[in-house]
Amino acid sequence: MRLEEAIIVLHYNKIRLTVRCVQSILDAGYSPGQVHCFDNGSRPEVFAELKETFPEVRHLRIEKNHGFSGGFNRALKWIFSSPSLTSALFCTNDTVVYPHALEECSQTGRQAGAGMVAPCIAYLSHPDSIDSIGAYVDFENCTIHHYHDRDLPLLLVPGKEYIPGTALWIHRDAFNALGGTDESYFTYWEDVDMSFRAHGKNIPLARCYRAKIGHGVGQTCHKKPLYTTFYFQRNRIRFCKRFLGGDVLNKTLQRILRELQQSGARWQEKGDTKRLNYLEQLMEEIKIIT
Questions:
Q1: Predicted confidence band at 220 (pLDDT cuts at 50, 70, 90)?
Q2: Contacts of 236 (CB under 8 A, 6+ apart)
Q3: Full-prediction pTM beyond 0.85?
């Protein structure tokens, strides 16, 4: 393994998941010096326990959680502050890394001239099933969908496809050119936005079937109205406003508005005050001009 490549794990509080992830990297044959754990504002005792468990791995903690987008940026800035590191495999802590994932991504990046590479992410519960090998935006409905196919082309289609943030390889030049993710998203859609900005800067994005990452798809966020109702929908709206225009934008926002109104009726029947409060903010975010 070349010294200019590293693996970085973004984590927040969930110590067991992080231990599993880091251990998988070491079991895959990577040296502790290649592994960087970035703590996105966990409790101090969580950070201390992880350092004690993996004393030879590199660790850095920040005091405040900055969401996925802020954690991603700070983690990669930390990595690339070292002149010797030119690329990194970024992973969230609910993943496991299989042997040669970093090398395969790096080789694909060089061969394709790509600034970012999507590894083949498989479900941990069903290792032969693909969770994602890149993803795409359905602009008619402004929804996002993972690819599960096994025969997709090497390069992602500009203006349509993106690399999910669960795990990705990124070159330092691409990170610097993009400035990382847009932290105003906080969480959700920042990976879509970053990929589309890469397309706009003519930075090729590629996929690599040979690089395998396992993903233990969690349910935590699906139980939290702040995430599923507010951040996801707010950022969906913001993405549309940034990358669509004219009648297409207006029709898309109208469609989202109708969806939110239908959801609001259900929340009203259930007396779900939290989601109804977020709904008011989302309506303000849309601001459709007819």
A1: very low
A2: 142, 188, 189, 256
A3: yes
